[in-house]
């Protein structure tokens, strides 16, 4: 195992979206003090990092929606108090704005295109848009059909990715992994454990009680004999648990440390 990439963005890494088709990782970084949002694309092979330049200066009211096939989709906000998504902005990974649909909201990506809906009617009459142009090709699509198509396509898109399984406190597998952590690392896991095993490693993300009811999140990596290969404190003084605190893509391990630092490690070494 070896470190391939480490970068401190200096603000909270809010959302990651992996484009498995092109091997790019889109990132949303939010600075709550300055009320600024920035968007980045990382080439997972070359590790080249590029910031996307938005056409409007007030970036706080943008968010990362999805990434696929060399496209990055951003959303705006309708009802900002409720965080309601409104508007779709399609960008290329070089930062060029390709098209916009200001009155629609993103639903998901399928084999045939991008599904969108009217903001006030999210469950009825979905529309299918061309990915490259944003032009409408079909309308009146049911939510059930769109959900099925998005699910099927996601299964294909992420077949080369590995995400951990979440076990909640009290479940059988939680108790078994927690007992292993207690015996080998003298750590008492609480609330939840994320577990993933590969052909060469066992990866565990767990939480330990810290001061005043807060939680610390740890990542442990073992070989198949149970020997510790690597450990890291991902975050401290958390108010709750998360999910997908790490993932593996093309033999590399991805995780966020201290909310602001992206690390990529090769598991093939």
UniProtKB/TrEMBL annotation:
It holds the Pfam family DUF4905. InterPro entries: DUF4905. It comes from the Bacteria. This is DUF4905 domain-containing protein. It comes from Pontibacter qinzhouensis.
